[in-house]
Design goal:
It is a single chain. This protein has 616 residues and is α/β, with parallel strands linked by helices. It folds into 3 domains: 245 residues, Aminohydrolase, N-terminal nucleophile (Ntn) domain (Glutamine Phosphoribosylpyrophosphate, subunit 1, domain 1), CATH 3.60.20; 195 residues, Glucose-6-phosphate isomerase like protein, domain 1 (Rossmann fold, 3-Layer(aba) Sandwich), CATH 3.40.50.10490; 152 residues, Rossmann fold, CATH 3.40.50.10490. The protein is 37% helix and 23% strand. The strands form 5 sheets. The chain has an 8-stranded antiparallel beta sheet, with helices on one face. Helix 7 packs antiparallel against helix 16 and helix 17 packs parallel to helix 20. The protein is globular, with a radius of gyration of 26 Å. The chain binds fructose -6-phosphate. The site of fructose -6-phosphate (F6R) has 14 residues, from helix 10 and helix 17.
């Protein structure tokens, strides 16, 4: 949801900002812009609709002209993607430049007030209103630049990570944060700001993650001074060491991040298990669960909240926890949960799942659950993300940075953590005996090598199959039990990157309506592992074939029954039914990837989407 980058120091600011924006393009790519402090302290500003590459094409002349500047890559909220709605935005006097990630919810009333005072607006954005609101506090109320920003922020509500420069305050900028992420990189006589640490990871390993309600004044001369926005009281910075490496955020020879991330899954799942599965001792070690075991075991109910792919992982989590730990589980879209006045008590445990750890809907739902006294456990991928910090306890997924907008390795890592949690609680509350527990533990431990197997055995076959579906306009995905959410996830992957309409259903629901859609033009991907109500799925496949649907069967290696009826067959290794969604996800990810690639779509940056959804 918009990426922001700022730099001050001794390097070419243009280079740092533009390269940084490219790393943040996963956050939005509707437009891009840059402002640098030029000669005579005048701003040099360029901005344009479209990607950072468009910006580069119009801003070559800014190379090596400045050591301080900032840039923005946009995911449009207020106002269509266009040159004039692109950031940075200037105030009416042209002296204040501002970039923003988030939404100023009360911008309209401020805009009306400012218009009444003669301010004019050149865009439809909430951001331009904030830039002018700061000018208003400086000119009409007589505040300093810094104090004017503070005053303006105390009047607005919504979400923001902002970086602001003033022509009369050369060599410095001011940043502030509320509900949108902002990291400050600390170098030697140089400072970086960005929506995440990826733009500065090769320059420094030290960073401060600005907290909600804090603002910072940054200059090479005076360093980083952090204060509370509310009362200007000073804040001691918490400096953290970055674990991120440059290699992790580069494509490493793959054509797209998505393909790289699909192929990373044996490692990302293994990393998620590392140090947690201790086979010799017969235990699962998870500090977050162990430290809160009593509270979690006593829960009358577990509520899982998440969005999108993470919500699909949550649905599988429901099956896992109910089966192994025998605690009732409900799974909710975070966005719905928060607005429907849910009944939550202090006996509830809420599990919030989020790859980015920044999703605004999930954040809001967590805040509500905490207000009502529930214990909130987070499952996040991004270390030190907002969700990981506001939850009471949690477990990281350790999948490494996921840059492709379509979630792949984060999903299978979430399933891994949920499996570990379910098994651990089940063992401790006695729902699973030791023999069962150990069987599942061995099986889970073998999953990374089985993922490697399915990647190797299915890659070429899936590539071939994808060619036959380039012109498909609809797709149906079916699965039963644990693989029903897997079908939903398969459909979501196809929709978001290839723009083909797709729906996922429990296979048995077909006959209650969707079967009317089946004809010779309807591709149906059906997940049919041996352990998952196989006989019933065989009947579902027969029903589809009787109506001439085109069946793509995702079956266990050596399957003959479903395979003999299917038009296309993709095999994956056998495992317990509860872990099969991890394996069946792989060929479905590859299928949507190749269909999208053959259709010429931008798989890493699909239209209208952004990786980190920090608006509600
Ligand atoms: C789909 C996808 C989205 C996210 C959703 C939640 O491929 O990536 O549906 O899963 O926006 O994001 P997180 O997990 O970051 O909270």
């Amino acid at each position: 949801m918009c990426g922001i980058v700022g730099y001050t120091g001794y390097r070419d600011a243009y280079n740092v900002v533009v390269n940084g924006l490219k790393r943040l393009e996963y956050r939005g790519y509707d437009s891009a812009g840059i402002v640098l402090e030029g000669e005579n302290q005048k701003f040099n500003l360029k901005k344009i609709k479209g990607k950072v590459s468009n910006l580069e094409a119009i801003s070559e002349g800014l190379k090596n002209t400045s050591h301080i500047g900032m840039g923005h890559t946009r995911w449009a909220t207020h106002g269509v993607p266009s040159d004039r709605n692109s950031h940075p935005h200037l105030s009416n006097n042209g002296k204040i430049a501002l970039i923003h990630n988030g939404i100023i919810e009360n911008y309209d009333s401020i805009k009306i007030m400012l218009k009444g005072k003669g301010y004019v607006f050149h865009s439809d954005t909430d951001t331009e209103v904030l830039a002018n609101f700061i000018q208003y506090f400086m000119e009409e109320i007589g505040k300093s630049f810094y104090e004017a920003i503070r005053a303006a922020l105390n009047e607005v509500y919504g979400a923001y990570a902002i970086c602001v420069m003033h022509e009369d305050e050369p060599g410095s900028f001011v940043v502030a944060r509320l509900s949108s992420p902002l990291a400050i990189g600390l170098g030697d006589k140089e400072y970086f700001v960005a929506s995440d640490a990826s733009p500065f990871v090769e320059f420094t390993k030290e960073a401060i993650y600005l907290e909600d309600g804090h603002m910072a004044h940054i200059s090479v001369e005076n360093g980083v001074k952090i204060h509370q926005i509310k009362d200007n009281s000073a804040v001691d910075p918490q400096i953290q060491e970055l674990k991120l490496s440059l290699e992790q955020i580069e494509k490493g020879g793959y054509e797209h991040f998505m393909l790289k991330e699909i192929f990373e899954q044996p490692k990302s799942i293994h990393d998620t298990m590392r140090g947690r599965i201790l086979l010799d001792e017969g235990v699962i070690k998870m500090a977050g669960i162990w430290d809160n075991l009593e509270r979690i075991q006593k829960a009358k109910r577990i509520i899982i909240i998440a969005c999108g792919t993470s919500w699909h992982a949550g649905l599988i989590g429901e099956y896992l926890i109910e089966e192994f730990a025998r605690i009732p589980v409900e799974v909710e879209y975070a966005s719905e949960f928060r607005y429907r006045n849910p009944i939550i008590t202090s006996d509830d445990v809420v599990i919030a799942i989020s790859q980015s750890g920044e999703t605004a809907d999930t954040m809001a739902a967590i805040k509500l659950a905490k207000e009502k006294g529930a214990f909130v456990y987070g499952i996040c991928n991004v270390i030190d993300s907002s969700i990981s910090r506001i939850t009471d306890a949690g477990s990281y997924t350790h999948a490494g940075p996921e840059i492709g907008v379509a979630s792949t390795k984060a999903f299978t890592a979430q399933l891994t953590v949920l499996s570990l949690i379910a098994l651990k609680i089940g063992k401790h509350n006695g729902s699973l005996n030791n023999t069962e527990f150990m069987q599942y533990l061995y099986e889970l431990n073998a999953i990374p090598s089985k993922v490697q197997d399915v990647l190797e055995s299915s890659h070429d076959i899936v590539k071939q199959i994808a060619k036959d579906f380039i012109d498909a306009t609809n797709f149906i995905y079916l699965g039963r039990g644990y693989n029903f959410p897997g079908a939903l996830e398969g459909a979501l992957k196809l929709k978001e990157i290839s723009y083909i309409h797709a729906e996922g259903y429990p296979a048995a629901e077909m006959k209650h309506g969707p079967i009317a859609l089946i004809d010779e033009n309807m591709p149906v991907a059906i997940i049919a592992p041996k352990q998952g109500h196989y006989d019933k799925v065989v009947s579902n496949v027969q029903e589809i074939k009787a109506r001439k649907g085109k069946v793509i069967a995702i079956v266990n290696q050596g399957d003959t029954q479903v395979a003999s009826m299917a038009d296309y067959v993709i095999e994956f290794p056998e495992t317990s039914e509860c872990f099969s969604p991890i394996l069946s996800a792989i060929p479905l990810q590859l299928l949507s990837y190749y269909i999208a690639v053959y259709r010429g779509a931008n798989v890493d940056q699909p239209r209208n989407l952004a990786k980190s959804v920090t608006v509600e």
